[in-house]
Design goal:
Shape of chain A: rod-shaped
Largest sheet of chain A: none
Helix content of chain A: over 70%
Strand content of chain B: 5-15%
Strand content of chain A: under 5%
Number of helices of chain B: 4
Order of helices and strands of chain B: HEHHEEH
Number of strands of chain B: 3
CATH class of chain B: Mainly Alpha
CATH superfamily of chain B: Winged helix-like DNA-binding domain superfamily/Winged helix DNA-binding domain
Order of helices and strands of chain A: HHHHHHHH
Structural class of chain A: mainly alpha
Structural class of chain B: alpha+beta
Distance between the termini of chain B: 26 Å
CATH topology of chain B: Arc Repressor Mutant, subunit A
Radius of gyration of chain A: 37 Å
Oligomer: heterodimer
Number of helices of chain A: 8
């Protein structure tokens, strides 16, 4: 194939594939011929080394995709912003739940402290003998730790979910405009292995402590009050059932 | 080796060359065909693709005794993408290499 044959075949194929700026591409190949010929190669040799014009033309990206990309990008951005609004509400909801859990953990800790100290601010803590009081205090301490762990894990989960969502946003726009995408992020938070192990053992320990102390406290209270319904025996609701 | 396999790697090679200095198209084609067995013409579609993705820019420069040449230059975004993809590729290649070498041990 001579230089002219190669270039005209390439021009035909580029046109067939609807590739923009064909002249620019052809001038690039023309220059390639010029450089190679200056080095003493024949036109046939150069054309053979360049490769098949039809195959080369098929490796260029066509204009149609580009044009479609612009419209698609606008549609994607509009769609994403609507979707983003609802996702925003969802994230607010998740954060509200995080606050509820934190408050629960804090309340458990305060009640446990009151039980240990034997104080009852505004008579909110019901009266009971010291043994079940300490055991219930222990149980609530464990519950407070357990919910604090849940809080930490849930916070990590929200953070990871937001990062993942951000990456999804970015990638969707990139895909619509034909740009390279970054790897997606998993929604499962990855804590360092050591911290993960520690958190798991703390959670397990506090769960066991909470359950066993709760059961033990209840049994103790039943025995000490001499009644299955010890809350009535101790008059927790302002009255006593007298048998 | 098959062409699809090489294509992504070729983009990396082009970027690594352009990270060192700006080049004109022919220079890049020569550099690649010297190191890797590909058809000379393959490099131009790659350059165009990288340019349309904003990884490269071009400018014309007059040369003594010849037509102006189109130079390719890596953009700062291109540099960023290159560093990231380079690290990913090297890590990938390392894993594959150790995997294939393991296979070698099994047979002997």
């Amino acid at each position: 194939m001579t230089k002219v044959e190669f270039l005209s075949k390439l021009a035909d194929e580029l046109k067939k594939n609807n590739i923009p700026d064909a002249e620019e591409i052809i001038s690039e190949y023309e220059q390639h011929f010029a450089f190679k010929m200056a080095d003493g190669f024949s036109e046939e040799e150069i054309a053979a080394k360049l490769g098949n014009p039809a195959v080369l033309a098929s490796q260029f990206e066509s204009a149609e995709e580009d044009k479609k990309g612009v419209g698609r990008k606008a549609a994607t951005v509009i769609g994403l912003s609507i979707f983003g609004f609802f996702s925003g509400i969802f994230f607010v909801l998740l954060m509200a739940w995080e606050i509820v859990m934190a408050a629960f953990s804090l309340c458990s800790a305060v009640v446990a402290a009151c039980l240990f100290a034997g104080i009852s601010p505004r008579s909110l803590i019901p009266p009971m003998p010291s043994w079940p009081r300490v055991v219930f205090g222990l149980s609530l301490t464990a519950l407070s730790v357990l919910s604090a762990v849940a809080c930490i894990y849930f916070a990590a989960f929200i953070r990871q979910l937001m990062r993942s969502y951000g990456r999804f946003h970015q990638n969707t726009i990139a895909a619509a405009s034909g740009n390279a995408q970054l790897p997606s992020i998993s929604i499962v938070p990855r804590l360092p292995a050591k911290a993960n192990r520690r958190i798991r053992s703390v959670a397990l320990f506090s769960l066991v402590l909470f359950t066993s102390c709760f059961v033990l406290g209840t049994v103790l209270a039943m025995i000490l009050s001499g009644s299955l319904e010890f809350w009535h025996a101790w008059g927790w609701f302002g009255y006593k059932i007298v048998h | 080796m098959n062409i699809q396999y090489k294509k992504g790697v070729l983009e990396l090679c082009v970027m690594s060359l352009l990270k060192k200095r700006d080049c004109y198209g022919y220079e890049i084609a020569e550099y690649l065909s010297k190191h890797i067995d590909i058809a000379d013409g393959t490099v131009y579609p790659i350059l165009r693709k990288l340019k349309s993705e904003g990884l490269l820019t071009t400018y014309m420069q007059e040369e003594s005794g010849g037509p102006p040449r189109k130079y390719y230059s890596l953009t700062s975004y291109g540099r960023e993408v290159y560093e990231k993809e380079r690290a990913e590729y090297l890590d990938f290649a390392k894993r594959i290499e150790s995997l294939l070498k393991e296979d070698d041990h099994d047979e002997s």
